[in-house]
Structure formats: C-alpha cells, structure tokens
Here is the input.
Amino acid sequence: MSPEQQHRESQLVERVVASFDDTPDPRLRELMQALTRHLHAFVREVRLTEEEWQRAIEFLTAVGHLTDDRRQEFILLSDVLGASMQTVTVNNEAYGNATEATVFGPFFVDGSPEIELGGDLMAGASGQPCWVEGRVTDTHGNPVPHARIEVWGADEDGFYDVQYGDDRVAGRGHLHTDADGNYRFWGITPTPYPIPHDGPVGRLLAATGRSPMRASHLHFLVRAEGLRTLVTHIFVRGDELLDRDSVFGVRDSLVMDFAPQPAGAVTPDGRDLGDRAWSRVRFDIVLAPAAAGHEEV
Ligand code: BEZ
Ligand code: FE
Here is the structure.
C-alpha cells in the first residue's frame, strides 16, 4: 500500500476518534473511541469491499426486523460470536475456587414456582428424571444457608416450557438451601437442543458450516446475601457437543458426571419411579464475595 493510501486511512481513524473527544461521559467516550479503532482496524485488515459492507448492513437489518419482545436475534448474534460469553467472562473474574459463570440464555422466567427441598420441578415435562444435589459454600468452604437457587431446563424434545406458547410452567423452579447449605431436587436429565436457527443467525451458522446445537445443560441462578450472584449451567460429561457448543458456554469445571440409574434402582428419597430409568448428579456451588470482580486471588 502506498504511503499516501496508508496516510488517508489512518488519518480518517484519527478524525473519527477525535470527534468523540468532547463526550461529557468519560465511559461513553472510551467506548466510542475504542469501537472506532477496532471497527476501522477490521475494515482495513480485511479490505472490506463495498458489496460486503452492503451485505453486512442487510444482514443486521434482517436481525433487527426479526427482533421483538419475544425474539431477540441480536442477543443470539452476540451469543454465536462468543461476545455474550466473553462479556460474562470479563464480568465474573476468576476468584479462588468460585464456580464459573456462563451465558444466561433467553429462557429464564421470573416468578418460577417454589419447590421444597427434594421436590420435583419437572411438573410433567417430558424427559428422564434427574436427582440433583449439592452444597452451596463460600470460597472459604463455609456453608451458605438459605441461598436461593433457580433452575431451568429444556425437556426431552429440546424445548423450554415458554417455547410452547400455552402458558405451561414445567422444567423450572426455585428452592433454598437448608441450614447447612445443602440442596436437592428432581429435575430433567439434560439433552442437546438447537438455539433458534430459523432466522439470519441460523443462516450465518449454515453459511459457515456451524451447528446451532447447544451441549446438554441445566441452568442455575444462585443468589445469596453478600455473595456474587452466579449464573451458570452444568453440562453432561461424555456429551459429544461439549467442544462445539454453539454459544461457547462450556467450561471444563462445569462438566459433571450424570450417573445413569436403571429402572428400579433405589432413589435417594425413596420415590417410586416405576419402570423409568433416572440419573443423578452432584453439583457443589462455590460463591465469590459480592465485591469480587477485580481482585486477583
Ligand atoms: C440457552 O441455553 O438457553 C440458550 C443460550 C443462548 C442462546 C440460546 C439459548
Ligand atoms: Fe438452555
């Protein structure tokens, strides 16, 4: 590239960056100037053609047109680009042995039913029952009593209750740890399912030879006084999708042994499951202090 061309390109970057110099909010200034630098670096690195620029605009327009109160195609785009997971990673800094966070996903619903310790949150959802138990502690190993644990999972057909559009509530609920920080409940043994892929994000995945499938998982949201709120999932050891989860949510530390149990195996709470096989998993949860985020341990 000629020195003149180089000069024109870099001068434009500098002019755009400088246009934000007087932004009153310093954080907004930082964001806009860094965005400008990275965006221009991308355009210059790939030598973006005007036709490619046009197609990118059409793609983003299609993402916007599909987005409404119920379908958030922009978040899905962020998810498949790993931007959601990187934001989670940046905002949940490693702290001792605190349990790792992962993506929230679009299927959490406020106001889930409360279940007793040992209760069943499947509520008629299809799938194999799974006994889930564990203990919530802080990073010093002290039990966390009365922590609120929200759980939600897809059914055997790969759908969350809210995707049926018939107001059913199944496969979700919340419970509290006991005085020793212990919890237990019956949930659904996770199975793989695709993220919504009938829109522009699905077409992008197809065009790039990527699968929309998510590795099998069960969602958790754990809150306790004075401790950092944890949004995470547990994944199933042996699932062949673990290394190609479409939204990059898998962390090795979140892969758990879901032990298959044959029909007739005695259940931990004496529940009679008749001729149904079931599984069981232990997930001990370690919460960082609420102030954790930027300290290094
Ligand atoms: C989920 O796990 O529920 C999910 C996460 C990201 C995109 C779509 C679904
Ligand atoms: Fe999910």
In short: The pocket of benzoic acid (ligand 1) is lined by residues 76, 79, 103, 105-107, 195, 214, 247 (CB under 6 Å).
